[in-house]
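call fold(seq) -> tokens
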Amino acid sequence: MKLAEALQERADVQRRLAQLKGRLRSNARVQEGETPAEDPKALLAELNGLVARLEELVRRINLTNAATDDGGETLTALIARRDSLQTKAAILRDFLGEASDLASRSMRSEIKIKSTVNVAEKRREVDALSQEIRLLEKFG
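ret:
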């Protein structure tokens, strides 16, 4: 199985697991004397099979990524870097959204709200992170 096929199948399994979660919740309880729309035992068996398949796919993908080298770094290292940069960029974007949302005053006696950071400087930092993420996404 090629890496691209494994990645596609992993995405399919994850989608099926998300759907199965809802189906399990919908069939967790019924009114006394009623039967569930789907057999919870069958759904739980399906869950076990999907989780086992997901584990196998993730293991194989990770082994491939750890063995694949790109200019001195493994794909696993590049993916970890990309994911951590995406997390940092998302947090900074949220923070900058708050920092740049200044309250307007209609009277001089009202409390003045100001940013705690240089928003323009931090936005340039986020732009640089976004550029690095785009470069890493070529490999991941």
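The first helix runs from residue 3 to 26.
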